[in-house]
């Protein structure tokens, strides 16, 4: 068995496991059912609690704000799948980057809303829950952004650092608020955070803004203005790589080294000895690690330290060299005793370009598959994942998307989104969908129609039949024969149609008239679905013809029903009894041949073995009927022979 | 102009504009939504007015804001405004509920419930549709009953039992005492409440087809013209005075059509929405109005023409017209939503404003519909 990566966390189930009762459990699609058994290791047996506990692994799916995340990302996911294959790769890269930005903006929108709710809510537990969700989303966005920079955008040396700087700036927004606070105060230079702001700006490589803030100081002190001017010049001259420009990386490197040497010379000359703050800034510009580490509070994270360190020592860093600096930065920043958090390890794996480790660690750390499924899908589209097959299931992307979609399917409302995800899993998606779609609870016809549309669009005929059968059975139970028939016709279920027709006929023999005439009169071509149904339709037609006094047509129809063997044997007596009034008419309706056929039908019926359970009364009725019929048939035969033998003059 | 989308964390089954008083020439600002398939469903009231600061270029670029909402027992199967302050809902539990909206739109409360108006002996029978013409309300359901209520009376006025042997999906008023229902075997039945008998005054159906019909709407000015849509996504236009067959069949959608609406003040425009995720706006061009078009018995099939290229399709817009350029009457359809979403369950149109709701839990509001 594989080793466990992390220690499993324990979940306390309130109300279970008292008195050392053993717990039993059962896996469900998204939840776990836990119950108390009667088994106890020692001690007397006692009654166990009768309740079954449902343990849900993923609580995010129930949050109304996170639902927006699921819905909006579904739209982006579907759009991503539709990107055509034949577009040249350069255009595709920009498309993928914009899709990645879309995902991130959706995360940010959710985060903002959660933050607003956390602030405005009054319940303490709810506020802390929102706060937790906000921090998780922050971490997710941080990781996604880094993956976008390193993998999707895949910037080369030079632009790589610029993107990393943007990344850091985006995730450390308090610098802006503090800077604004300082600048808007009455005397910015006297503000207690003044130097912190300047140093923070320099640490983020925002030299222009740092100069702007510094200028407030310079205007005050006239005597030391030369020192400030010197610093201003240094900051102004700092070279920044322009990827769109004509300057090559080597040229930039040369320029940068010149500038670096100049900063170093300033330090050696003790130019800034008069002002310790400026001296600190100069040391930072030179890239002195100890000084940078001193700014631990302002940097607040090791990856900020990493990017700043690279900015001032190695701005032309190449992607493969990144991991060495990352590892050492983390060690330096966190110190020998601190242990890295899961987030730190994930970021480190990203810097080492180890995608699989990133995905694996994220899967373990987060409690639902949303993030890993969407990120892996996007990376797969960028052709960054080697298709190494897992020893279970299919490739990594499909596995994660299937897990995510299965989780969605357990939600009472979000199951519709999951359908699209299954569609885009080529190997197992269809099988998963077939199994899950049958288990969606169908309360109303409208929901059943939507589920059926999903199945019919994908030619899942088995599922169509089973769903229609469920709806038909329910309609039958509620005595809605018309609905039941409609459902069996939709499923092309001949057996059920027969069952329903039997019910109709039963109703007819009990009540003596047909119910649901509007249905029977309008069966149309659906009548041919089952023999019994055809009989029902034709029988109703017979009654209609009789009502319209079109006796000869009615007679012909009745006869054909019996001779063509469409009518079931059990109903022949009824049919023959129906024929009685036609036989008794003054006018001769049945011809000689027809009468002979009727007689043979009657005799055939009587030849059948008598039912031994019939009471004497029933037998009497039967024999009376038969006698009446024989009499009527004989009389009709006589009249018909006479009529046909007569020559009209 | 693209419609504004807002995700509201519940699947939307119905959206309806609140009626505006004819005296004040306002733009429609308030609409109601009903949800379905949630563990607890809600009826919510939203506002899309100017909320103070507006953007510089596009004037009305505001997202809908939630004003108030109320718990609803069961899925909201249909929603109609009875008048400015009252809202009627049909529930999947078989109940018909009247909600009262406070004049300042700050709260929504239950005014009256007819519990289990539609019922089975051992199950719940969903009430599938309601229609109002104040003070009368008519509801229909899966149990095949047609029920007439008066908004101020607690007791039901009249029940037509066994009106239909299959599920009745939609209902609309033709005249003050006549309603038209459509059912799942493709029949339109006209009911006259003045008659004592429980049988329909007239039955219309497609010959040879049993396509379930899901929605029906009457032409605002000419009461004999009725549009229906059904499972096959085709739009049928009927003249109820004559004939047993529809006047026109138009291929509109590739899946069930959920709602069809004539524009209330400009009936040359028709709107349909469907399970396939599209919302189409139909209008007649070349000056002739819809009724004359229909009277000429124009029976050709139209392939819908998209003026807005859908995301993901080729940029060369497919535009198929009726065969024969000599025909002066043309029906043009445009997609109103920018890209294919999950099913669009409901739409409502008033003046120049359109609101629709989808299974993707998004509400789209379009405030400059070209009518």
UniProtKB/TrEMBL annotation, chain A:
It holds the Pfam family Nucleopor_Nup85. The keyword Protein transport applies. Keywords: Membrane, mRNA transport, Nuclear pore complex, Nucleus, Protein transport, Translocation, Transport. InterPro entries: Nucleoporin_Nup85. GO terms for biological process: mRNA export from nucleus; positive regulation of DNA-templated transcription; protein import into nucleus. It is found in: Nucleus, Nuclear pore complex. The keyword Membrane applies. One of its GO terms (cellular component) is nuclear pore outer ring. It comes from the Eukaryota. Its main location: nucleus. GO terms for molecular function: structural constituent of nuclear pore. Belongs to the nucleoporin Nup85 family. Functions as a component of the nuclear pore complex (NPC). Component of the nuclear pore complex (NPC). This is Nuclear pore complex protein Nup85. It comes from Cyprinus carpio carpio.
Automatic annotation (TrEMBL), chain B:
SMART domains: WD40 (SM00320). Its main location: nucleus. It comes from the Eukaryota. Gene3D superfamilies: YVTN repeat-like/Quinoprotein amine dehydrogenase. WD repeats lie at residues 206-248, 250-292. InterPro entries: WD40/YVTN_repeat-like_dom_sf (IPR015943), WD40_repeat_CS (IPR019775), WD40_repeat_dom_sf (IPR036322), WD40_rpt (IPR001680). It holds the Pfam family WD40. One of its GO terms (cellular component) is nuclear pore outer ring. The keyword Ribonucleoprotein does not apply. The keyword Manganese does not apply. It is found in: Nucleus. Keywords: Nucleus, Repeat, WD repeat. This is Nucleoporin 43. It comes from Cyprinus carpio carpio. The gene is NUP43.
């Amino acid at each position: 068995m594989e080793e466990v990566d992390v220690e499993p966390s324990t979940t306390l189930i309130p109300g279970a496991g008292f008195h050392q009762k053993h717990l039993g459990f059962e896996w469900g699609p998204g939840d776990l059912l836990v119950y108390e058994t009667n088994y106890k290791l020692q001690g007397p047996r006692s009654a166990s609690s009768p309740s079954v506990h449902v343990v849900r692994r993923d609580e995010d799916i129930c949050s109304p704000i996170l639902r927006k995340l699921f819905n909006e990302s579904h739209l982006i996911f579907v759009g991503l799948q539709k990107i055509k294959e034949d577009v040249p790769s350069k255009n595709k890269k920009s498309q993928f980057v914009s899709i990645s930005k879309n995902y991130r903006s959706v995360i940010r929108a959710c985060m903002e809303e959660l933050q607003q709710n956390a602030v405005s809510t009054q319940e303490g537990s709810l506020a802390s829950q929102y706060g937790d969700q906000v921090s998780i989303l922050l971490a997710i966005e941080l990781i996604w952004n880094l993956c976008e920079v390193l993998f999707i955008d895949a910037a080369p040396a030079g632009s790589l650092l610029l993107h990393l700087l943007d990344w850091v700036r985006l995730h450390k927004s308090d610098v802006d608020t503090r800077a604004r606070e300082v600048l808007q105060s009455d005397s910015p230079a006297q503000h207690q955070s003044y130097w912190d702001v300047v140093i923070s700006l320099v640490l983020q490589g925002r030299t222009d803004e740092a100069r702007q803030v510094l200028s407030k100081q310079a205007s005050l002190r006239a005597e030391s203005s030369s020192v400030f001017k010197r610093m201003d010049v240094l900051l102004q001259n700092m070279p920044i790589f322009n990827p769109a420009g004509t300057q090559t990386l080597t040229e930039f490197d040369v320029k940068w080294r010149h500038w670096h040497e100049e900063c170093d010379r300033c330090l050696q000359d003790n130019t800034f000895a008069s002002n310790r703050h400026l001296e600190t800034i100069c040391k930072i510009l030179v890239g002195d690690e100890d000084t940078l580490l001193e700014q631990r509070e302002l940097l607040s994270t090791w990856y900020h330290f990493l990017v700043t360190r690279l900015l001032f020592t190695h701005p032309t860093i190449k992607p493969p060299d990144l991991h060495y600096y990352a590892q050492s930065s983390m060690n330096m920043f966190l110190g020998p005793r601190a242990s890295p958090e899961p987030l730190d390890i994930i970021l480190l794996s990203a810097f080492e370009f180890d995608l699989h480790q990133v995905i694996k660690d994220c899967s373990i750390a987060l409690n639902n598959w949303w993030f890993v499924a969407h990120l892996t899908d996007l990376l797969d589209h960028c052709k960054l994942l080697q298709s190494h097959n897992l020893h279970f299931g299919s490739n990594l992307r499909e596995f994660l998307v299937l897990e995510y979609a299965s989780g969605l399917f357990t939600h009472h409302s979000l199951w519709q989104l999951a359908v699209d995800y299954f569609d885009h899993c080529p190997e197992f998606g269809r099988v998963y969908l077939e199994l899950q779609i049958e288990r969606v609870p169908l309360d109303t016809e409208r929901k059943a129609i939507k589920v059926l549309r999903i199945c019919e669009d994908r030619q899942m005929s088995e599922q169509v039949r089973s769903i229609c059968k469920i709806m038909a059975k329910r309609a039958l139970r509620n005595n809605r024969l018309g609905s039941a028939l409609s459902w069996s016709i939709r499923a092309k279920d001949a057996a059920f149609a027969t069952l329903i027709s039997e019910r109709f006929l039963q109703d007819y023999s009990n009540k003596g008239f047909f119910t649901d005439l509007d249905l029977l009169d309008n069966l149309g071509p659906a009548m041919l679905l089952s023999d019994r149904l055809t009989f029902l339709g034709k029988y109703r037609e017979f009654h209609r013809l009789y009502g319209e006094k079109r006796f000869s047509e009615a007679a012909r129809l009745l006869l054909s029903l019996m001779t063509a063997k469409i009518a079931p044997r059990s109903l022949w007596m009824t049919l023959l009894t129906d024929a009685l009034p036609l036989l008794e008419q003054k006018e001769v309706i049945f011809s000689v041949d027809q009468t002979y056929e009727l007689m043979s039908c009657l005799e055939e019926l009587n030849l059948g073995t008598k039912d031994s359970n019939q009471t004497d009364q029933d037998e009497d009725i039967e024999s009376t009927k038969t006698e009446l019929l024989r009499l009527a048939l004989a009389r009709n035969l006589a009249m018909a022979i006479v009529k046909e033998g007569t020559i009209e003059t | 102009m693209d419609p504004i989308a807002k995700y509201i964390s519940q699947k939307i089954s119905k959206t309806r504009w609140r009626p505006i008083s004819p005296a004040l020439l306002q733009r429609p600002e308030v609409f109601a939504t009903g949800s379905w398939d949630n563990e607890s469903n809600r009826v919510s009231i939203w506002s899309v007015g100017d909320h103070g600061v507006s953007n510089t270029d596009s004037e009305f670029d505001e997202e809908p804001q939630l004003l108030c909402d109320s718990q609803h027992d069961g899925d909201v199967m249909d929603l109609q405004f009875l008048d400015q302050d009252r809202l009627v809902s049909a529930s999947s539990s078989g109940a018909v509920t009247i909600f009262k909206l406070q004049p300042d739109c700050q709260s929504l409360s239950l005014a009256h419930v007819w519990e289990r108006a539609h019922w089975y002996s051992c199950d719940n029978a969903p009430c599938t549709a309601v229609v109002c013409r104040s003070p009368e309300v008519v509801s229909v359901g899966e149990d095949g009953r047609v029920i007439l209520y008066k908004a101020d009376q607690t007791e039901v006025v009249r029940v037509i039992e066994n009106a239909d042997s299959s599920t009745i999906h939609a209902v609309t008023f033709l005249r003050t005492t006549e309603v038209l229902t459509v059912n799942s075997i493709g029949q339109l039945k006209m009911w006259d409440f003045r008659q004592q008998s429980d049988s329909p005054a007239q039955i219309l159906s497609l010959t040879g087809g049993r396509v379930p019909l899901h929605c029906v709407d009457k032409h605002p000015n000419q009461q004999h013209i009725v549009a229906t849509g059904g499972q096959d996504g085709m739009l049928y236009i009927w003249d109820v005075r004559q004939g047993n067959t529809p006047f026109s069949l138009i291929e509109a959608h590739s899946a069930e059509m959920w709602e069809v609406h004539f524009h209330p003040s400009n009936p040359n425009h028709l709107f349909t929405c469907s399970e396939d995720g599209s919302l189409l706006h139909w209008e007649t061009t070349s000056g002739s109005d819809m009724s004359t078009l229909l009277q000429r018995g124009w029976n050709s099939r139209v392939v819908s023409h998209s003026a807005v290229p859908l995301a993901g399709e080729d940029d060369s817009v497919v535009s198929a017209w009726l065969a024969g350029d000599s025909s002066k009457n043309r029906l043009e359809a445009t997609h109103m939503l920018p890209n294919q979403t999950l099913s669009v369950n409901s739409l409502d149109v008033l003046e120049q404003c359109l609101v629709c709701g989808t299974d993707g839990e998004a509400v789209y509001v379009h405030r400059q519909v070209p009518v």
